[in-house]
Amino acid sequence: MIKSRRDFLRSLSMGAAAGAAVHWSGSIPAHALEPDRTRQPDGFIRLNSNENAYGPSPKVASAIHSATSMVNRYPFMKCDEVTQRIASLHGVKPEQVLFACGSTEIFRVAACAFLGNGRQLIQPTPTFEAIEGYAKSVGSEVVSVPLDPTFAHDLGGMLAHAGASTGLIYICNPNNPTASITARQDLESFISRLPATARVLIDEAYHDYAIKSARYASFIDRPLADERVIVIRTFSKVYGLAGLRLGYAVASPKVIEKMREFITHDGLNAIAAEVAVVALDDTNGVKEFVRRNCDDRQEFLNNATCRTLKPIDSQTNFVMMNVQHPAEEAIEHFRRHNILIGRHFPPLDTYIRVSLGTPEEMCAFWQTWDLLPSSKGLYRA
After folding, report:
1. What is the pLDDT of residue 42?
2. What is the pLDDT of residue 368?
3. Pairing relation of β-strands 229-234 and 199-203?
4. Do 184 and 102 share a domain, yes or no?
5. Helices (H), strands (E): how many in the chain?
6. Tens-binned pLDDT, residue by residue, of the chain (381 aa)
7. Cα–Cα distance, 377 to 337 (Å, whole number)
8. Residue 236: inside a domain, yes or no?
9. Residue 381 lies in a domain
10. 129 phi and psi angles, rounded to 5 deg
11. 225, 181, 201, 172: which is closest to 106 by C-alpha?
12. From CA 27, how far away is CA 166, in angstroms rounded?
């Protein structure tokens, strides 16, 4: 009976994956035009880093290929163009934009600018860890406040720790690793009650994947009249450019100027410099990736539901769900089957984070899931 049920679920996964194949245009499947990304050269399927599994759009991929002819040149002359294009996209002044080597460099720069000995970082937990590491490296105290039962930021708990020594407050929205959002109205109320000296770092890496609603709105698209707010974006997710390392901050000119003191000189990647403008102009490519992700996310939820699993409501390109067993055991089970999923995120000790892959990759994920025994809480290869 168990075997037949597993066979049924596997066939369901494969059929669903085939039905989920998407198109750039016309009737030619996108994957027919793309290299096989099901397995990497090391043999692993990578569902562990929240990357865009489809790679850059055809238009951006072509620009990358063309840009290789420029790698012997410093990209000095492109800096102003990239800054201007980002500013134009968001309707802000160029002096409100600071680009960097990935959004993680923005974290380092913010830590150097607004933290240090005697200063405090307040963050949720679990969340993306980069800012914590940089805060500690400059000697700051780090206060981590657990998410609330709905996996939103516990803003009341964070506010209770805020004081004169608070230099930065980190808000990842949608949050990594839980894929959850914190309501915009609650964030506005929270920010208004913070000490005047506290800057708020709002990480919107997954903004494009979030379902727009009364509960969610970007702090760039709908800015708050508060000079303490710093918003971070990245080219690593929806644009499929994680390997080129380009991110940026949007804030008041005064805040940007303070952060600029600590930015890496000549840090703009030559290929990224050529490609960034193309990526920002490729609105159809972004829309297609968002549509694909929406379909892939729904297909994941369908498969989870038929296995009586209950993921956290996802607003991103990854899903976190409670597997009712130690996360480390599930992670190791998938590794033994050449699939990498997200690491263990304490205190969510029975949750796993799964980045959404191509339909073929997700078919392999569910086939491997179905190898888990249905009783006794033990995992086998």
Report:
1. 74
2. 96
3. parallel
4. yes
5. 12, 11
6. 334 444 434 444 444 444 333 334 333 333 333 344 455 667 899 999 999 999 999 999 999 999 999 899 999 888 999 999 999 999 999 999 999 999 999 999 999 999 999 999 999 999 999 999 999 999 999 999 999 999 999 999 999 999 999 999 999 999 999 999 999 999 999 999 999 999 999 999 999 999 988 899 999 999 998 999 999 999 999 999 999 999 999 999 999 999 999 999 888 899 999 999 999 999 999 999 999 999 999 999 999 999 999 999 999 999 999 999 899 999 999 999 999 999 999 999 999 999 999 999 999 999 999 998 753 444 444
7. 19
8. yes
9. no
10. -90, -5
11. 201
12. 55
What six digits make up the tokens of 182?
Answer: 């914190």
Contacts with 48 (C-beta within 8 Å, 6 or more apart), sequence order: 340, 341, 342, 343, 353, 355
> Which domain-ending residue is among 258, 281, 304?
281
Identify the domain containing residue 306 by its residue range.
2-56+284-369
256 and 179 in one domain? Answer: yes
Other C-beta atoms lying within 10 Å of the C-beta of residue 9: 17
Relative orientation angle of helices 58-67 and 270-281, to the nearest 10 degrees: 150
Q: Let me know if residue 69 belongs to a domain.
A: yes
Q: In what order do the strands lie in the sheet with 166-172?
A: 97-100, 247-250, 229-234, 199-203, 166-172, 120-125, 141-146
Query: Do both 192 and 247 map to the same domain?
Result: yes
Which stretches of 91-129 are DSSP H helices?
103-114
Question: Which pair of tokens denotes residue 120?
Answer: 């405090």
274 and 139 share one domain: yes
Domain end (from 249, 264, 281): 281
pTM of the model: 0.86
Same-domain status, 295 and 352: yes
CA dist 142 and 156 (Å) reads 17
Residues 6+ apart with CB under 8 A from 244: 64, 235, 269, 271, 272, 275
